[in-house]
């Protein structure tokens, strides 16, 4: 793989226009040439962390294609920089670009633990699993500093409320003490995202994520400590990682995962332009082939918003991918499955009846 990326350590290589803005910022060729001659960077590549103050933190998920009813996100934007990330489009609601801004402008919700506790105290709330990272990774690099996710896990534990986690960062092991305590009452399920077994592929797809070795070790350590782990092979990208389905599933099973999940990549909104620019710079020799194969999975378009087909795709290539995943489940996860989380302990804890125990 030849990398001609101009912005080191990032997934996106440009800031695409925000669809909600009438005006847009453009890097002109003459300015870029001036920067080159002066040996200056056209823009600063540092991450900025900006505090925001939401009124609520738990969101109802209405999509029938997603295996969660409620989610919460303690950060908006994600420094991991995964080029395919569907959450990029949400950064436009905050006034930023789905491209480089998504990776370099991280919005931090320091009040998330208090908002969560207020939600859990609500007399009308009935226990349902709340998934952390329904949009952006709760264990992205910012968590090392802010520790917001850890504070939220303490609230879940205090109220004996079920919680799910989606991450691709080994930083989750920092909170092993809380995860083990939650697991004792079957209150936690963890989803680790692993898209490839190749470090070369990982570096260009997900530049600031944990290595594949660390992620597999994380699956193993969590599993050995009684914490159920589902490995998300998501997204499957034809021509990039679609050939790894069986080997990925085998590795996940051998490291203790009890199930696997998958999606087929779809490039909605601004992500289509960001991904196309990226792959033409990063994999020029196979760019058109990959893009055409993605289109073949979604009725001739990079974009697919139709419930029922957007996650699994359609057509011959999508059928082959879905069949391989089905075969992988039968071969490596025949007698395994993620347990349902415990909903029974929350009400007594909310009412204060178990405070002494």
Automatic annotation (TrEMBL):
Pfam families assigned to the protein according to its UniProt record, in alphabetical order: Radical_SAM
CDD domains on file: Radical_SAM
Endpoints of the signal sequence: none
Domain Radical SAM core: 64-301
SUPFAM superfamilies: Radical SAM enzymes
UniProt-listed Gene3D superfamilies: 3.80.30.30
InterPro entries per UniProt: Elp3/MiaA/NifB-like_rSAM, MJ0683-like, rSAM, rSAM_sf
Superkingdom of origin: Bacteria
Alphabetized GO MF terms: catalytic activity; iron-sulfur cluster binding; metal ion binding
Keywords: Iron, Iron-sulfur, Metal-binding
PANTHER family: SLR0285 PROTEIN
Protein name, per record: Radical SAM domain protein
Species assigned in the record: Jejuia pallidilutea
Organismal lineage: Bacteria, Pseudomonadati, Bacteroidota, Flavobacteriia, Flavobacteriales
């Amino acid at each position: 793989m030849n990398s001609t990326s101009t912005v080191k350590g990032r997934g996106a290589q440009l800031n695409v226009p925000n669809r909600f803005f009438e005006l847009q910022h453009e890097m002109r060729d003459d300015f870029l040439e001036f920067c080159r001659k002066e040996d200056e960077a056209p823009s600063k590549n540092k991450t900025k962390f900006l505090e925001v103050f939401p009124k609520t933190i738990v969101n109802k998920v209405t999509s029938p294609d997603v295996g969660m009813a409620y989610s919460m996100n303690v950060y908006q934007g994600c420094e991991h920089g995964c080029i395919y990330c569907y959450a990029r489009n949400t950064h436009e609601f905050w006034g930023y670009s789905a491209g480089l801004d998504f990776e370099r402008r991280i919005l931090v919700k320091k009040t998330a633990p208090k908002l969560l506790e207020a939600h859990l105290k609500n007399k009308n709330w009935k226990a349902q699993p709340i998934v952390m990272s329904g949009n952006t990774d709760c264990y992205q690099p910012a968590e090392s500093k802010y520790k917001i996710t850890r504070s939220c896990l303490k609230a879940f534990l205090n109220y004996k409320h079920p919680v799910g986690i989606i991450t691709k960062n080994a930083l989750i092991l920092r909170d092993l003490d809380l995860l083990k305590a939650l697991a004792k009452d079957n209150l936690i399920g963890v989803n680790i995202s692993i898209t490839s077994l190749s470090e070369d592929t990982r570096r260009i797809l997900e530049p600031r994520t944990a290595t594949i070795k660390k992620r597999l070790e994380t699956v193993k350590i969590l599993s050995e400590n009684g914490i159920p782990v589902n490995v998300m092979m998501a997204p499957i990208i034809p021509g990039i990682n679609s050939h790894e389905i069986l080997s990925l599933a085998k590795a996940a099973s051998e490291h203790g995962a009890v199930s696997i999940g998958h999606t087929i990549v779809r490039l909605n909104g601004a992500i289509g332009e960001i991904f196309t620019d990226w792959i033409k710079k990063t994999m020029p020799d196979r760019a058109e082939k990959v893009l055409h194969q993605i289109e073949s999975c979604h009725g001739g378009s990079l974009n697919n918003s139709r419930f029922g087909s957007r996650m699994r795709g359609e057509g011959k290539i999508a059928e082959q991918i879905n069949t391989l995943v089905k075969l992988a489940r039968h071969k490596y996860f025949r007698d395994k499955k993620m347990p349902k989380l415990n909903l029974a302990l929350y009400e007594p804890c909310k009412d204060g009846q178990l405070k002494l125990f």
